[in-house]
Amino acid sequence: GVNFALHFRAASGRVLYLRDVEWRFFTGVVVGAAALVGVINLVAGEYALDFAGIERALRDALFQSVSLTTTTGFVSADYEVWLPAAQALLFALLFVGGMAGSTGGGVKAVRVLLLLKQTSMELRKHLHPRAVMLARVGRHVVREEVLANVIGFVILYLLLCLAGVLVLTLLGVDLVTGIGAALATVGNIGLGLAGVGATDNYGWMSSPSLGVLTFLMLVGRLEIYTVLLLFM
What we know:
By secondary structure, the chain is an all-alpha fold. 60% of the residues lie in helices and 2% in strands. It has nine helices and two strands, in the order αααααββαααα. A two-stranded antiparallel ribbon has the order 1-2. Helix 2 packs across helix 3 and helix 3 packs parallel to helix 4 (84-96).
């Protein structure tokens, strides 16, 4: 899930992880989500409130958070029996994905970071209409066309997921399973919700449904634009 350029530099003797804004954001999202999920499960009584129970709760939460965010697709616990709040946090991780320059799928952490910065900047512009504001990632100013590209990509990503859910439900798949399957395939994660959750698989689906999911997986893996441009 981490940018391979950072690994290459580390192997070359220049460890720059902490200096990289995207790495700090990516790591913060994973660790923060894992901590919240672990606390929710402990408060809900899913794990015993002793050392072994707390250790297992945090380990299970961290493993699931890392697996979903890096789009690795492994599970060590059935997160579908956890509280809806914990599942909602894991569901949010399906959008984030790995860092740019990694083999992870999803929207990519840098796009999510830029989207948050753009949202913050738009809110501040309403308070100070005449101010000149620039979005920055570290010391670098992000050009407006780059921000527009990011917004366009995220909109396309969400529209693709929505179209996938619509077609799957028309083919007889229930809504929650359709949402989980569409997000899991566009993001190349594998793990979804309900019928395609932690302990389930896609083998029960009809051939048309699997065809739709295969297309979504291909489009998501090739960063959407590559495939959609073939139809223009």
